[in-house]
Specification:
- The chain is of the alpha/beta class and 265 residues long.
- It has 10 helices and 9 strands.
- The protein has one domain: Rossmann fold (3-Layer(aba) Sandwich).
- The chain has helices at 30-36, 63-73, 85-96, 129-141, 143-155, 161-172, 180-192, 220-228, 244-247, 249-264; strands at 7-10, 15-19, 41-45, 78-83, 101-107, 116-118, 121-124, 206-211, 233-237.
- It has a 7-stranded mixed β-sheet. It has a two-stranded antiparallel sheet with strand order 6-7.
- Helix 2 crosses helix 3 (85-96) and helix 4 runs antiparallel to helix 5 (143-155).
- The protein starts with 6 loop residues before the first strand and ends with a helix.
């Protein structure tokens, strides 16, 4: 029997599927969900091993398998909204399960998250490899400390950093912490996935949202992604970091709904 994932669905109208990022869970969408519910059907789903799907374990935690599982679980076409690692998953679903995806919105995401250097010259802007290795090392020592450090990085640069971290923590703690194995496998997925050459094949309406102060998806990477996905549009939240829907909920909602109205109404 094929595995499926638990998901939460409420509201009516155009269906929006929200996919969270590494280390967190679907509860992070709760404030945005409350704002959007009067106008849309909101579907939030946890990645395998996270949140409500903590007990769903994949032997091969590959992007293809994670995406297939989500596509199998949600049995209706929708606009997919993916944050960070969730953006990679949403992009893969748009590419390989295109009948399920009406539109694609990625938030603080990149087709390749790791900085690429050749002879000291930066060819691709992303997470520096020593930072990533530090997360692997911390995971071995203390899961909770690792997740707390990651939350701080996501809010870094935000004018409301303490408030943002506190809100993210309170939302995420609604579910049990993922296992060390799940966190390591999904971090490896973040490290090794490279969709750069596939972005041009996305056929659906495609919006990319960024925070100018984001250290995980640096501003310098945006122009490079523009070249890889010329059919897409992007918007930069000038005073936001890696979680603009938390730090700047009103303007985030405005950009999201204006774009949806342009293509789906």
């Amino acid at each position: 029997m094929m595995k499926t994932l638990t998901y939460q669905s409420s509201g009516q109208g155009l269906a929006l599927v929200f996919i969270h990022g590494w280390g967190l869970n679907s509860a992070i969408w709760q404030p945005l969900k409350e704002k959007l519910l009067p106008h849309y059907q909101i579907i939030t789903i946890d990645l395998p091993g996270f949140g409500a799907n903590r007990n769903v374990q994949l032997h091969d935690y590959s992007l293809a398998n994670v995406s297939q599982l989500i596509a199998n679980s949600i049995n209706q076409p929708a606009v997919y909204v993916g944050w960070s690692l969730g953006g990679l998953v949403a992009s893969y679903i748009a590419l390989h399960h295109s009948n399920k995806v009406k539109g694609l919105i990625t938030v603080a995401s990149s087709p390749y998250f790791i900085e690429e250097k050749v002879q000291g010259e930066v060819l691709w802007y992303g997470i520096k490899k020593p930072v990533l290795q530090g997360f692997y090392q911390q995971l071995e020592e203390n899961i909770e400390k690792t997740l707390t450090s990651f939350l701080k990085i996501q809010a870094m640069g935000s004018p409301n950093i303490r408030q943002d971290i506190k809100q993210l923590q309170s939302l995420v703690l609604q579910y049990p912490t993922p296992t060390k194995q799940t966190l390591a496998k999904s971090l490896c997925l973040l490290e090794t996935t490279d969709l750069r050459q596939q972005l041009k094949n996305i056929q659906q309406p495609f919006l990319r949202l960024y925070g100018r102060l984001d250290s995980l998806v640096p501003k310098k990477s945006i122009a490079l992604i523009d070249q890889l996905a010329p059919q897409s549009e992007h918007y930069i939240f000038e005073h936001a970091s890696h979680a603009p829907f938390i730090s700047h909920p009103e303007i985030f909602q405005t950009q999201l709904t204006q774009w949806l109205a342009l293509y789906f109404y």
